[in-house]
């Protein structure tokens, strides 16, 4: 592996999913890191949000490495939401990797490999590269149509100029394709990456600003470049260590990044990459950007995983680890010992703990309001009132789920606005935990494997 393949990594885009937390657009803090009551989709939970903001600030300043934070609180109090808010406020360049504790057991790789991959997904590398580009204003594009149609490849000529010079370049079929894909015309200012042949349209030359025809209002005008046509430019791109791992692992390759089917990556590959990255860092070509690794439902990890985490946090490239749990004092998986949150004391000792509190009725109403908007559901005030009551009596999550169900009920009766009848219809159709448990107690003999119902929630943090 003489050269790391980077060009392929450059074209990666990250895919975002919509879901339970799609309304969260940040932590909703002001400049002084105080939590605004309602902002960026976030409601209440002010001290936890503020604490998360302080951690973010430390991450941005690069002050802490290998630190870990625990979000602890009852189910549905916004732990996962706060982690998503942190992810949204981090910015493009800082990696945020997320996994659920239980994923460790469902992957066809060892637990430590899965955790190693997760850690490396959360470590970014900013790589500076010098590339040669050709930048100029298009004077003319001339494409020769071959006499026998279709048979021979197209050829052509491209004339580019700067304020000082003009040159004619020969075009191959690949470049012609690129030019027509970008819809390049004479008068455009373009940049061509010499190594990859990638064409970027920078805008229209000011000299052409008087040709009104065939120009949209969004047309961007730029100066005709000066100096030489060929230039050296410094470009910076950010990739994660995991992306470099996968692309350079011989058995995998580029596509594995999309399928997630990366399998185990050999440790020699990682060692080579680490030493290459270390080399780049010494030469000033690369910088490490520690990101965030978020492990939700951390109580699902077992004692081996916890000891791996202890060690991994001591690595000097370690990201910030954020974990969340809703468990109280419970068994550490893989042992017979009990511990707060199901996390061993030695790891707990390294964690900064942020606790989340149950919501007031008012906060719940605001969260439900935001969710209605997010799901594009119009609901009358009285129906919202009822939904809030239901949420307060049962759980916030249950009430959130009822929004969709009530909207469907409303659609069915061809209504425009979700009314009380729709909410109560949904409430009757889908039972919440309390009613379901009640039902179980009444009819326990008829179910398989029934035990004493009181044990169901023995160790979650319920008041
Ligand atoms: N402060 C908040 N502002 C806006 N939406 C919130 C807030 N807190 C929670 N939510 C929303 O309520 C729902 C439940 O919250 P979330 O999933 O974050 O709870 P959790 O603490 O992770 O619960 P669990 O312990 O069960 O995992 C989510 O859809 C979440 O986006
Ligand atoms: Mg959660």
UniProtKB/TrEMBL annotation:
SMART domains: AAA
AAA+ ATPase domain location: 65-358
Localization terms from the record: Nucleus
Keywords assigned by UniProt, alphabetized: ATP-binding, DNA damage, DNA repair, Helicase, Hydrolase, Nucleotide-binding, Nucleus, Transcription, Transcription regulation
InterPro entries linked to this entry: AAA+_ATPase, P-loop_NTPase, RuvB-like, RuvB-like_C, RuvBL1/2_DNA/RNA_bd_dom, TIP49_P-loop
GO MF terms, alphabetically ordered: ATP binding; ATP hydrolysis activity; DNA helicase activity
GO BP term, example: DNA repair
Family: Belongs to the RuvB family.
Record-given protein name: RuvB-like helicase
Organism: Picea sitchensis
